[in-house]
Amino acid sequence: VMVAEVLGKSMDPAAVVGKTIILAWILWTAYTIRLHAVNVYGRVIHEFDPWFNFRATDYLVNHGAKAFWAWYDLESWYPLGRPVGTTIYAGLQFTSAYIFYALEALGTPMSLNDVCVFVPAWFGPITTFFVFGMTYETSRSSTAALASAFFMAITPAHLMRSVAGGFDNEGIAVAAICGTFYFWMRSIRTEASWPFGFCTAFMYIYMVGAWGGYIFVLNMVGLSCGVILLCSLLGLSAQPYSPGLWKAYSIFYVIGTFGAIQFPVVGFAPLKSLEQLAPAALFLWMQLVHVCQTYKAKNPELPSKKLWDFYILVHLGAFAAFVLVLFVVMPEGYLGPLSSRVRGLFVQHTRTGNPLVDSVAEHQATRDEMYYQYFHFVCYLGPVGFVNLFFGRSNAQIFMISYSAVAMYFSRKMIRLILVLGPASSVLGGIALELVCRWCWAQVSMDEDGSSGADPVTAKSAGAKAVAAKGPGGKGKKGRGSSHEHPFVRECREMYADNMGMRRIVGGLMLVTCCMGLFYFWAHSHRMAENLSSPSIMILGRTQKGDPIMIDDFREAYWWLRDNTPEDSRVLSWWDYGYQINGIANRTTIADGNTWNHEHIALLGRSLVSSVKKSHRIVRHLADYVLVWSTRYGGMWGDDIAKSPHMARIGGSVYKSIKPDDFYQDEQGNPSPMMKRSLIFNAVNYRLDPNVPEFPPETYEEAYTSKNRMVRIYKVLRVSKKSRKYGKEGHGYRSWLAGRPLLSAYPPALQKILDEKEDFKQLEDFNRKDVSKEKKLLIEAKAADDDDE
């Protein structure tokens, strides 16, 4: 329907066929450019989070939806466990499972692994198609829509999360974002377009199931609606106030919110969380505006003073009701605080107040050079397209202005959010490219008299000259033109009209520049596709002779765990590797990338940064093996030593006996005394650094070191049999079912350690009480009394 509407309007059949073929080629390119990883590495799941997503999808396929929603995973977050079905955005899992079932039903079965590998690549063309529609709604030009689709198909800003094998939520979420935005723009095109609000709501519900970034979509629709409403009321929009806007937004908000709260991971957050209440407030205000506008329409002869009296009365009554609900009816603690990730969008990176959030690399601020890396030629076209939007100010253009500005701001705050700028940049780039190329072609192909129907500037100049030729006796037009046009502007316009040769040269040069820019953008995007397709779990290296070699230390280490350890073995590692250990080695882990329990990760951090003997007192009650990454010995420096300061900061945020400022390496790479004694430093460097001593007796022993010394595994000695037996009794699951705190899941032998913890409190969480000063003093005194070993 979209293709028929966009390409079939006011075109001859040949043009329709030609543009349809171009669109098909663009969509095919959007798919094939994402297959580089499959062509080089095979059908392999990438990175860390995708391994959990694959494991969860496998559970859904093998056990069914009912069991999935009730799934309490006892093989992760030991000894607490994790209620998976109620803590994830399961849209990715259900989408992949349905595709798996559909392929089987069609007689073309594909393994679940292969489906999960290809899902991001399949959704690339879908995202591109929605951007095609968004651009048409904004510009009403099928040529600009095709240009935008081309940019979106291969832009690295989208490739970064949509290559084959990158089985992560963003792989389908960007398509859901663009789909929601397209239907929203379509629903506000005219007063009669509001039924598309139902499509907007259902696409938004899918977005909620797909990714936690639904908060951005909700606020973006709300913000744009508020701006459109204000512009229409103040006469700044090309379209006056329309009940269609009220209907479209009301349908979207009511149905979308009702659908969103059905997901267990979301619950009633849309009605309680501070970052989601602005769209709710807008919904209520729109009802007031509609009441006022309806009253005005039914009383056209009413004096303006009485109309304003009515407006003020309605709004004062609504405000009184709001105050009553806020301070009388609403229970204390009903409103939740801003999350750390949202807080991080408004403060400097590493200053969110949550060391766990600050430790994630993709939460860092975006450097300027990254924009050229991810957008390339579009960096120059985007500003042109953005400025051009202000000359129309239709509802769709106001939305795109709002979306582009907000996405640009957020992309500056966090590398990961370059992703949401990708569609906006493609829309702006497509509009600008069509505008520039149309002007250039008009200059190159204009007639000898300087007229060109495709050039609005030339047309205006020719009209001005014709008026001037009438002389002083001409009627009206000359006088109006002279009174409304500044002499300097008129002189520039006439100079522009007279210099046809120069315009041809400039137009030709700009046309060549655009063609070259597109060529280099194509080449750059394909190079970036190769770079972004590296699965990280496998590394393509080269021998001294230059021959390619596949470094597979990580999977080999996980396979070693799978094949050489008991099935009920527990593996302690930093949380980054938990998903891969679960998914590949099929062994129980202490923590993973879900990072839902700050205090538990702090205990893990304390275990790794404490001295070897002190760490063993904790680890022997939790794990049978310890796994560390020592990639510096394979030429990659981002290993566990590099991450260890984050471990200390997270551990110290809960256990005050850990002093993060004492845990560091100096400029020469020499470890501080605290780091030198730590388990993580000794485990990474043991036997590879002659300055690192043997482990104390009955603590740890080396069990495995990978071929290229990039992964090391140690066996924990003197494992507590009593604590192991306690962990198998499922105390965490029973506590979760009963709604009790999960602390009872920890072995009793760790109680003294747990008594020292001070639960992490978010800076902006105004619902929680401060820990007593007496407890703080007790913890500090106990830490001071500990021997330094």
Secondary structure blueprint with pairings:
Blueprint: H1 2-7, H2 13-32, H3 36-41, H4 49-63, H5 65-69, E1 72-73, E2 82-83, H6 91-105, H7 112-139, H8 142-154, H9 156-159, H10 170-187, H11 196-210, H12 214-234, H13 243-260, H14 269-272, H15 277-298, H16 304-329, H17 340-343, H18 355-358, H19 368-375, H20 378-389, H21 395-413, H22 418-444, H23 456-469, H24 477-484, H25 487-498, H26 500-532, E3 539-542, E4 548-551, H27 553-564, E5 570-572, H28 578-585, E6 588-589, H29 598-609, H30 612-619, E7 625-629, H31 640-652, H32 673-677, H33 679-685, E8 700-705, E9 711-716, H34 721-727, H35 731-738, H36 751-755, H37 773-785
Parallel strand pairs: 5-6, 5-7
Antiparallel strand pairs: 1-2, 3-4, 7-9, 8-9
Helix pairs in contact: 2-7, 2-8, 4-6, 4-28, 6-7, 7-8, 7-10, 7-21, 7-22, 8-22, 10-11, 11-12, 11-13, 12-15, 12-21, 13-15, 15-16, 20-22, 21-22, 22-26, 23-25, 27-28, 29-30, 29-31
Brief characterization of the structure:
Helix content is 60%, strand content 4%.
Task: Give short descriptive properties of this protein.
9 strands; 789 residues; disordered C terminus; mainly alpha; single chain; two-stranded antiparallel ribbon; five-stranded mixed β-sheet
Q: What does this 3D model show about the protein?
A:
The chain is built from 37 helices and nine strands. Helix 7 (112-139) packs antiparallel against helix 8 (142-154) and helix 10 (170-187) runs antiparallel to helix 11 (196-210). It has a five-stranded mixed beta sheet with strand order 6-5-7-9-8, with helices on both faces. The radius of gyration is 31 Å and the shape is globular. Strand 1 and strand 2 (82-83) form a beta hairpin. It has 789 residues and is mainly alpha-helical.
